[in-house]
């Protein structure tokens, strides 16, 4: 029973739609970042409140600066792209007003769907002539696959972090041993040098 509840909770979490609304100040830029897996479909829908003489642009870039989607002077619309690699992606909205004009704040609404939530299961059901229950089962199957992929990725990242931690510990241990031998060698050399110096000055026998 607990496993079923956990699965349902994870399915509901993955089906959550990221809807964000904020206030865009004049001549400002606001960006949102998100990490996504490889070959993930991303759909975005936005709307900007009207302000006479003001313009708002948007641009979507990856961590290497490649532009995936871009439009200028927007009011409302949609964008979509497919990720090529696991990467962090940035969506920026830029407000522009003429220098002689005093701007006002604008409300920006952004609705983002990605992965399973971006698929149109109604269209898939119609194309394959599936019953509503079969369409829902298909959606739950895809959500389950997405959960498995996320757990696999987290396990892989955990293994990479553990290997890095063990490698770092080994290097620190070897460096500590090397430092100890260096200090012992330096101390031995210093004692022998001082003993020879004092003998030369006939301060000791």
From TrEMBL:
PROSITE patterns: GOLD. The keyword Signal applies. Residues 1-19 form the signal peptide. InterPro entries: Emp24-like, GOLD_dom. Pfam families: EMP24_GP25L. Its main location: membrane. This is Transmembrane emp24 domain-containing protein bai. It comes from Agrilus planipennis (Emerald ash borer).
